[in-house]
Amino acid sequence: MTNIAIRQATFTPLGAMLVPIAIGLFVPGYSVLSQQMSELEMYATLPNVATRVAAIVSGLSIALFGMGLLLRYPRESRFTMLAAVIFGVSMIGNGVFTMGSPWHGLYGIGLFDMLVPAFFAAEIAAPRGLKSLTTASMAVSVVCLVYNWSMIVHLDPPGLQGLTQRIFSVIAFGWYSLASLAISQVDDRVVMRH
């Protein structure tokens, strides 16, 4: 069960977020350049439902990934698990509540997105000597911080908020694919040695 909880993150968080990225290309009157993905929740049935379900699936997957890490590394992954579960819950909130409600993102706890890769680097990747994974995780954490900060202080380029969100989403949710795949390969090598 632990392996499944970790390995499912190789595809699920990013795969789920690619759904609203792709759907936005086909919705009349919607701009993938200027409108954020959550704005698809305001459109007709298919874009609305697909976007909401994608956020919920992604959130559940991220929380499951965090819990899988805790089961696999109980002494080493407490902060990673906590941040992943909190961020996962915020993504579920994005799917349950529509944009404009303070419950969409659960009052900003989505900011925990930047902590997951940083905690993962400190607790899991670095102690195992995974330098490239540690560096990539820290870089993604910085990207998350800069993106979130740019939105808070309104430096996200006007008219390009949709594009910047999509680029950020591929990086941030793609990190789960990288982390899951890399840590699964490390664990597979350890098992094969024994």
Automatic annotation (TrEMBL):
Pfam families: DUF998. InterPro entries: DUF998. Keywords: Membrane, Transmembrane, Transmembrane helix. It comes from the Bacteria. The chain crosses the membrane at residues 12-33, 53-72, 79-100, 106-126, 133-155, 167-186. It comes from Dyella jejuensis. The keyword Chloroplast does not apply. This is DUF998 domain-containing protein. The keyword Secreted does not apply.
